[in-house]
Hints:
The chain is an alpha+beta fold and about 210 residues long.
Amino acid sequence: MGGERLQHAELDARGLVGDRWYAVVDAEGRLACGKDSRRFKRRDQVFGFAAETNDEGVRVSGPEGTWLVGDPALDRSLSATMGTPVEVRAEAETRHLDDSAVSVVGTATLAWVRDELGLDGDPRRIRVNLVVETDVPFVEETWTSEVSIGSAVLSPVKRITRCRTVDLAQDGVPTSQPLLKALGAHRDLKLGVYLDVVTPGRLAVGDVLRHR
């Protein structure tokens, strides 16, 4: 689903607290997503919904209204939209995150996408957790040592392999663009890196990222 813009967040060993704690799950236990795999089932309709956390819990907005997670009406709306029985479930045996704990992209990389590829470079399209202000395109791909942000410490893992999801209209980005093909034509670009959590902590907009 579409996410939310945060001014601050807590980071635990799993990643951003609350990030993808819930997923839309079908009768086979597969998670609604923009791609097919052993864990995921391609259900593009999920991108018509968005989730945010408030004092009441996790609220989901869709074409027919808004509901708190746990309201049977939310599951009915999702099932009707997707044409098959589904329900929102908390993470259990099946991991909800795509790969590592935290995903990051630099603003200079997004600017490169706009300037060199002529595409929108909107971070919502690549669904990262953190957008870091940078001066050099793809500098985040060169990180080899731990970095600190706020009171948290993270360790680079690998570049993020992109899939068809980046081409989909989603999360307030209304038009599809051929971003995946364009990336493949330029030295197999990935857009973003994964990091694992070394030391949990708190992050906030304006925190400085430092190499350790």
